[in-house]
Amino acid sequence: xxxxxxxxxxxxxxxxxxxxxxxxxxxxxxxxxxxxxxxxxxxxxxxxxxxxxxxxxxxxxxxxxxxxxxxxxxxxxxxxxxxxxxxxxxxxxxxxxxxxxxxxxxxxxxxxxxxxxxxxxxxxxxxxxxxxxxxxxxxxxxxxxxxxxxxxxxxxxxxxxxxxxxxxxxxxxxxxxxxxxxxxxxxxxxxxxxxxxxxxxxxxxxxxxxxxxxxxxxxxxxxxxxxxxxxxxxxxxxxxxxxxxxxxxxxxxxxxxxxxxxxxxxxxxxxxxxxxxxxxxxxxxxxxxxxxxxxxxxxxxxxxxxxxxxxxxxxxxxxxxxxxxxxxxxxxxxxxxxxxxxxxxxxxxxxxxxxxxxxxxxxxxxxxxxxxxxxxxxxxxxxxxxxxxxxxxxxxxxxxxxxxxxxxxxxxxxxxxxxxx
Length: 421
Description:
By secondary structure, the chain is of the alpha/beta class.
């Protein structure tokens, strides 16, 4: 079955492509069959729903799912016993690990690495903050186990085999992981809940020798996913045998920029004696690129490369070249074409505008207040701007929560907002 990949430097262009594909999909299809769209968060789902309604005049029977939930539903379409299997999410995994650790004997050799953190005080009684430490450790382990499943599949495969680990800490983690998810490699009695990694392994093993159908079982659209692990991409590769999958991804550059090195990679190349400013005999074209893509684009670059490898670099381009009327548009144009020739002189000659601003604030509270004032000003001055078109990005949301609540909930101009972490 086809796996279609769509790239654009504007999310609005991707939304138009999605609307076109949905229109083509609905021709000759059961009208009661829902349109399945996978999104990273509720804010994007709301914006996309409004965008589809504006383009198609009405948007109904559209189901939005998060990545893990959507992939689970795809696998359930192939699984005869899906009704008896429940997903084991990170919160449930935390509770399961907490129950295991609460009743475990920390004196046994496998769990001895946990004693410095969970161990009892000198008189043998639990520490005053034992319950808090137990819960924090359980949550951290649940997060680590999910990351291991997504990015260290080879290690998880070794953990599920009946063999020991040389490192005591690795032995401890392996013991807790097997106790939480069950040894799926050797037992037939499945636990009440399974992680997405375990469920995918079971379903793909059962369907490995089943021939794919002539017609796809379903059409699935993945919109705006900025980060996909190697596990997710491998799962998409397997599921394309039965499903038609459309992936819509933002890509700031229409040129090939997978060889643009980050500053750390540049230093590594220089230590090995390779030039990064002149053509390298092993590279054609030379390793050059926009400095912002090099400094801040490593994760996006790797994500784009893995998506291209998934489709053998066969993708649909929907790029839109920005005009050069503002500083921001000029910068977006540079990123799109990776051509900075003459732009520095042009930017110096331009009048100052409000398209790109760098504001120095004495603290977090003033940062949030300025953002609140800027949003209010832009909503009042631009009648076409909607609150759903505004996004505020921060590196860590927790330190800003008190400031956000005080500022955005304050009268006489409160704003309704959604938090996505």
